[in-house]
Amino acid sequence: MARFSLGSSDETGVRAAERHVRGQDGRERVGGNREAGRGFVGRVSKGAAHGGRHASNNRERTARTRRAQDLVCQFIEHLAELAIIAVDPRAAILSWNQGAERDTGFTAAEMIGEPMTRLYTPQDLANNAPARDLEQAMSVGHFETAAWRMRKDGSQYWARVVVTPLYEQDHALAGFGVVVQDLTTQRDMERQQYEHALQLSARDAARAEAERRANDLSDLVQQISAQATELDRRRIEADSANRTKSDFLAVMSHELLTPLNAIGGYASLLAMGLRGPLTPEQRGDVDRIRGSQLHLIGLINDLLNLSRIEAGHVPFSVDDVVVSDVVREVTDTMAPQVLARHLVEERVECTDGVVARADRAKVEQILLNLLSNAVKYTPPGGHLTWTCSAVGDRVRLTIRDTGRGIPADRLADIFEPFVQVGRGFARPDEGAGLGLAISRDLARAMGGDLTVESAPSVGSAFTLDLPRAR
Ligand code: ADP
Predict the structure, then answer these.
(1) Which of 37, 327, 347, 454 is in the most buried spot, having the most CB atoms within 10 Å?
(2) Is the minimum distance from the CB of 375 to ligand 1 under 6 angstroms?
(3) What is the pTM of this model?
(4) Tally of CA atoms within 13 A in the half-sphere of 372 that contains its CB
């Protein structure tokens, strides 16, 4: 393969530059013998005429050939789409068309005779790309590549470059035709199209994601609505079961109360000696019958109350209630039991200014239950302390004892009906575990609540929370 040493200093290149002339329009034109440029394109320099072959003897044929060459040259020169350059075998530029001027900024006058290497980037030059391109074109008859090329202002542009070796009729190498297509616009367009496609696919992906989420959401809504329907069904079932339970309790209670009252009545008759005098043992038995009868009546009344409250059948007469008044009333009522247990009772911060909006009788019932529990579950010598306060729109009343306390894992249970901590169910004289359930239901029905804090062997604090009167 032929090796090239590139440069403009060769004779043909220099002469080519010298043969340029300026036309009337101020533009440079190639002067001299057109035939000399045979085989080249664009503004052809006479210097390209390697070999200087003589024209055919047939003048007419020669003239036609020249006209054809003229036309081709003009056509190429004005083919503004492409930069078309001819170089001699040593790569000195022989012709430079308008497309080349436009793409590179170099005029023909500047470039004719110059080495083609001026169009290569420093990096390509360092890699000996110019010589390699021409060698490849020679070896396969055609070389095509996409590469960066230099502009006059030092910027670079991306181009498709086609190099074709050109030969004289005697097959001697005449030079190379180089076609350079500026791909910057095409590249930009492709990039824009690519980015547009990216945006579209991102939008499609976003839309697909939104649709997926919408579907998920709609599934979720369906699930929730199915759950709501199921909950509704269960609520209706529970309401109906509750009504049945209340009806059952009402009927049963009535059925139980009648004979219990009879038992109580006859026991009283016996106790009063109306059926004759009783021995001390008999009197003790009758008292126990009477005590059990009273306990059962109390239990039945509690059950009735509970079911009535839960069914919303208990009327509330709401009014302003001075909390310290109710506390005083309840402590007065319970004073004998407190005294009997040797308990110390005190009231702290419970001023008359603490006024709740509630049903007074129900508040009394709750406090009575709390106080009797405190008395019941606090050993002799213990302390009972009442505190109350009004904060914001709430009134809080706490009774604290130093009794046996309640284990943490049972705290939530004690408000459930029939739950008793630390003792069996069969102690008729000590209630049935309904007091707190009733009390909390009553508190909640008045817009309040009943809560507890407790620690075993330390004591318990029950707090009644109620709406505050304005
Ligand atoms: P009862 O007192 O009739 O058993 P309650 O509903 O009033 O029913 O109380 C439920 C349970 O809560 C009681 O059995 C007891 O274990 C516990 N309890 C309530 N008050 C106290 C208290 N002040 N100290 C310790 N335990 C208490």
Answers:
(1) 37
(2) no
(3) 0.51
(4) 15
List helix spans (H) across 98-183.
98-104, 108-111, 122-126, 129-140
Q: Return the minimum-mean-pLDDT range out of 127-131, 188-192, 373-377, 456-460.
A: 188-192
Cα 206 from Cα 215, distance rounded (Å): 14
- Alpha-carbon distance of 399 to 391, in angstroms, equals 17
Residue 374 beta carbon below 6 angstroms from any ligand 1 atom: yes
Judge whether residue 9 has pLDDT over 60.
Answer: no
Distance CA 200, CA 206 (A): 10
Q: What is the pLDDT of residue 113?
A: 95
Quick: pLDDT tens for 208-226. 999 999 999 999 999 999 9
**CB of 124 shorter than 6 A to ligand 1:** no
435 CB near ligand 1 (under 6 Å): yes
Of 76-85, 348-357, 371-380, 424-433, the range with the highest mean pLDDT is 371-380
> For residue 238, which of 313, 311, 314 has the smallest C-alpha distance?
311
Give residue 24's pLDDT.
Answer: 41
Find, among 421, 425, 423, the residue nearest to 454 by Cα.
Answer: 421
By CB atoms closer than 10 A (0-12, 13-18, 19+), residue 19 is: buried
Closest CA to 312 of 224, 432, 441: 441
The CB of 384 under 6 Å from ligand 1? The reply is no
The closest residue, in CA terms, to atom 12 on ligand 1 is: 414
Rounded (5°) CA angle 33-35-36: 70
Spacing, Cα 433 to ligand 1 middle (Å): 7
- The pLDDT of residue 44 is above 60: no
Nearest CA among 319, 310, 306 for reference residue 359:
319
Half-sphere exposure of 195 (CA within 13 A, CB side): 5
Residue ID of nearest Cα to ligand 1 atom 1: 433
- Pocket probe for ligand 1: among 420, 423, 439, the residue whose CB has the most ligand atoms within 8 Å is 420
Continuous segment of H or E residues that includes residue 455: strand 449-455
Determine which residue's CA is closest to atom 18 belonging to ligand 1: 373
CA of 327 to the centre of ligand 1 (A): 19
CA of 434, closest atom in ligand 1: 6
Q: Reply yes or no on whether the pLDDT at 444 is more than 50.
A: yes
Q: Check pLDDT > 70 for residue 17.
A: no
